[in-house]
Amino acid sequence: MAHVLSLRCRECSREYPVEPLNVCEFCFGPLEVVYDYETINRVVSRERIEAGPRSMWRYADFLPADYNPRTDINAGFTPLIRSRNLAEELGLNELYIKNDSVNPSYSFKDRVVAVASAKALEFGFKTIACASTGNLAGAVAAHAARAGMEAYVFIPADLEAGKVLGAAIYDAAIVAVDGSYDDVNRLCSELADRYPWAFVNINVRPFYADGSKTLGYEAAEQLGWRAPAHAVAPAASGAMFTKIWKGLNEFADVGLIDGPVETRMHLAQAAGCAPIAEAYADGRLIIKPVKPNSVAKSLAIGNPADGYYALKTIEASQGSAVIVAEHEVAEGAKLLARTEGIFTEAAGGVAVSALKRLAESGAIGRDESTVVYITGNGLKTVELVQDVVRPIHISASVDAFEAAVDARVS
Amino acid sequence: MRRVRLTFLDHMIRQPVIYQMARDFDVVTNIRRADVQENVGWVILELEGGEEEIDRALEWARGLGVRVDPALGDLVEG
């Protein structure tokens, strides 16, 4: 049984029953899940977690939905890899890469949708929906396929077909909406009121968002039950970033790791869409929404729902926010591939380039343990790094090959 | 009824935009949450009225330089 007491408004603390709700009716603040930490504290232990499944459901005691094999596609418990080459290049001695690009649908979104889809079934929904330009669409469609639920994925009509292939393959209904990005946003908020569907990031958002806490739990467990000194993560809505911090703190609160958590949380965005990082740079807690114009499409949220809370997380953890230049997005992805053999999409490129800046500036000290979060797979955004394809073209003869190799070496 | 988030930047922060909107358009405005500081502020505004009239009112506000966004933040994710 999930150890959940209620939902609570993050602003006015008004409590609500555990239902598909996401907004406080009184102050319009976002709702979050309230857990029964007394029970969690009593039942959890390192041994219990270690004996659990090799997926994010090993942390089921901390999640707001019960494990349901009907929706499970084995999300999470992805590798935490000790970096040698990238660490050396950046002058760091203890760098770890949380490679979440190897989730079942190739991004961290499997974590949030794993919880959202399990909760949707608990609530009795038969249809699950989202508005997405890529990663979320794939995760929703894959989980729906496994669960035997219907899936509706809304996209802007001018989105390249390749972007939605990763959802269409699971036989989801892809709805291409004529109009701007803003029109898709508005349509989906209206549809969420009208249809009895689980819109993962609307009416089941409080549950959905907590799936990302497992990114904090896993890093702590895989580090040998301790929190890192630094965490570097990309941000779009900012929700994942806040949940990594929440996950680490929950582990400390129930004694699974030593507290207080002193991890410095560093948020990464690309210059073409950096509303959270710009607010940090200006010393504001108010987000000025922006019109995204970035190659990091999976981070292109101009009006981030959790921007304020991400800024509060930075403040609480004495972290920072980094804006990387647009050209550094592909450079970061190439750097990670070249040094560690991990092919990430644009969001990972943003995280790696931000890490590089933090190491160069001394914000991350040489001997301080650091986890960088790689949240999506490079095969999703091949156009970002197309210029690496430069084959050595030869005729089919040994002479031609050797001549080409000589030319390459010299 | 429609809920939007209005963001006021720089010079707009001192203008009585919501008063003018309610006066000049056939909409009922209701401020539900707000945070207004010296140089930047936001308001979660509920608007009641005909759909077209709400569209006209918001277009007018955009024309003044007020930013209009969905109240819940962007729903389209990557």
Descriptive report:
The complex is a heterodimer of chains A (about 400) and B (about 80). Chain A has about 400 residues and is an alpha/beta fold. Chain A folds into 3 domains: about 45 residues; about 210 residues, Rossmann fold (3-Layer(aba) Sandwich), CATH 3.40.50; about 100 residues, 3-Layer(aba) Sandwich (Rossmann fold), CATH 3.40.50.1100. Helix content of chain A is about 40%, strand content about 15%. In chain A, the strands form 3 sheets. In chain A, strands 4-5-13-10-11-12 form a 6-stranded mixed beta sheet, with helices on both faces. Chain A has a 4-stranded parallel beta sheet with strand order 8-7-6-9, sandwiched between helices. Chain A has a 3-stranded antiparallel beta sheet with strand order 2-1-3. In chain A, helix 5 links the parallel strand 6 and strand 7. The mean pLDDT of chain A is about 95. Chain B has one domain: 2-Layer Sandwich (Alpha-Beta Plaits), CATH 3.30.70. Chain B has 2 helices and 5 strands; from the N terminus they run βαββαββ. The termini of chain B are far apart. The model of chain B has no long low-confidence stretch (mean pLDDT about 90). Chains A and B meet through strand 6 and helix 7 of A and strand 1, strand 2, strand 3, strand 4 and strand 5 of B.
